[in-house]
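Continuing from the previous page of notes. For each protein in this section, the sequence appears first, followed by its structure tokens. Read the first protein now.
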Amino acid sequence: MATTDGKRKLKVYRSLYRLNLAFARLHETLNWLTVARILADQIPDDLPRVWQDHLAEIQAEVNRGITETLHNMEHGDVRRLGRFRDMAPKVRPVHLARVRKS
């Protein structure tokens, strides 16, 4: 059980990293297009900046939702593992043996 939860959390953390990396690349590309004035004939000068602001807002919303979920997962682990830490040292091996069997 703990391994699958750990793998699940790892996948979520990696996905969040990749998502933020993609947002950074989009921001960088829009910045490059603005500096290079590639889009100057088709769109107003300030529009790429507006797009960057929209991207930042979307990124913040996505990050907030995902990090809230991660926080709840981590909080659950702290609660569960805190009980184990507080067990008497002689009880831990018995508890571990029981958990490994199930």
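Done with the first. The second protein uses the same format. Note its length before scrolling.
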Amino acid sequence: MNRNISEQGAVTYIMVTESQLKQVAEDSARSVLEKFGIATEEVKEKLQVEDKAEYRPLVYWMNKLNVNRSTLWRWEKDGLVTPKRVGKKLFFRQQDFDQMFAQKAAE
């Protein structure tokens, strides 16, 4: 019966927990990497951000500092802050903002 429903183009829903979904994603990624002969540990090392606890995502800083993306882009362009890029996402360190504000206060 389920086969007939699927063949007719009906929508099927499944329920999984967050941990189950995460496990499926990890298993799938591991399988793809293994097919290309890439070690999973090698990929994990490349994805890790140094001083991970110090970095926060772009949106966090936009909300905390009450600024928009273009302000952070300008600060980056002026060399006042240096983001860490992980894929398309940007992460900034508290230390960079502390230094920038201290420098501005000293001027």
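What the second structure shows: The two ends are 75 Å apart (CA to CA). Helices lie at 2-7, 18-35, 40-47, 58-65, 69-77, 94-106. We return to this in next week's lecture.
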